[in-house]
């Protein structure tokens, strides 16, 4: 389960940003999860709540945006969205010549704080 490590690293960044902005409390966190990150959102939510205990972010509201599985098809020269990350064929021309455009990581998009 790599979600716990991702949450620990995210909390480090959150606490640094909160301290830099004079926050007393973090009330909201917006995360963007890459389509090919292999992150399970339920596990991420559970781990985030666990990691945040005793921190400025304890009890904050977590918002998760799941990025779509977007790829560039070399054959038909179009951006396509895959319905499943397991299917690696272009839905337009059925080519397997796809370049992944979607991220495979997790980003902190926004923080909401109380000063």
Automatic annotation (TrEMBL):
Q: Does the keyword Metal-binding apply?
A: yes
Q: Which residues, by range, are in coiled-coil regions?
A: none
Q: What domain of life?
A: Bacteria
Question: Does the keyword Translocase belong to this entry?
Answer: no
MF terms in GO: metallochaperone activity; nickel cation binding; zinc ion binding
Which positions bind Zn(2+)? 73, 76, 90, 93
InterPro entries, sorted: Hydgase_Ni_incorp_HypA/HybF_CS, HypA/HybF
Query: What biological-process terms (Gene Ontology) are attached?
Result: protein maturation
Query: Which UniProt keywords are present, listed alphabetically?
Result: Metal-binding, Nickel, Zinc
Chain positions recorded as Ni(2+) binding sites: 2
What is this protein's function per UniProt? Answer: Involved in the maturation of [NiFe] hydrogenases. Required for nickel insertion into the metal center of the hydrogenase.
Entry's family note: Belongs to the HypA/HybF family.
Name the UniProt record assigns to this protein: Hydrogenase maturation factor HypA
